[in-house]
Amino acid sequence: MKAKKSKQLQWLKIILIVLLIAAVGYIGVLTYEIRVSQNGEGNLFGRIPDQQVIVILDEEESYAKKEFLTGIAQAGESLNMVIQKEIVANPMNDSEIRDAFQASVYAQVDGIIVNLANNDRAEAYIKASMDSGIPVVTVGNDSITSERIAYIGTNQYNLGVHVGETILSDAEANEILLVFDANYLDKKGAATNNYLNGFLSIMNEIGSRKINTLFLEENQRVEIVLKTLLDEKTPDYIIATDPINSLRITKTLIDLNKIGKIKIIASSDHPDLLNYVQKGTIQATAVENYRQMGIRSMRVISDWGRTGSTSAYQAMTFEIVTTETAGEFDGME
Fold first, then answer.
1. CA atoms of 50 and 24, how far apart (whole Å)
2. β-pairing verdict for 81-87 and 111-115
């Protein structure tokens, strides 16, 4: 009986020793995680976000918006910020824009990022959010009188100037067609006017050039409209201001065997477009850094939360990638 009891005590001691070792190990790991998390190296406290941000968009499927949201997600992870998207299905419907902002105010988020086709349509709601203590950043096109804390985007006037200079370098470019996406139908506050004004400021220096504009309507496919237009006349250049329309226009001209007869200046660093430029299929593409816009907008919200200040206008870089420079282009920082 005593031997059995002694054996049980030995097993109990072994179990206690094992539990003690496990407890010491757990405490050691926990202490290490606390230390590195406090130094900003670990993720023990990463489950508790520093800030919550709502991003208001009118769509999320285009190339530009996907790149923008990739930048948002990257910055959110590095800055420990929670991101929620509010999609406005119809950016022409003020009630949908209002509802998106009200959801942000009710949630008492730390910041709102607005990237609509026309941010000016949200002016009243941006002001209301600012009045309630929620900072707002506009992206892509500005709403100057809305009192947003910052605007982040490409200088569209300068972009138009550089595209115009690219056209002027070709002495045979006499008739030019600019194609704008359906998002630009409501042009008040959108980037279209600035782009077009910058382009025309250069083109008007030589009066013999003929400039035409095509504003696509909602759900109107550029392929169909373009084929109809080309039955009537053939421009020397087509400038596509939207990434996806750039691809569609290029493929349409390839199908019609008009590549070369009609030259193309596209938009964005979409891999297919860069490939077309490198092969000489199209002449150039105007690259805006959509991903960096997402990263920068998140950093502005983060900085505002820490310091209460930021630069009100932050212009993003762009580049006109041509056949001659395509081999040197390795993306934009």
1. 31
2. unpaired
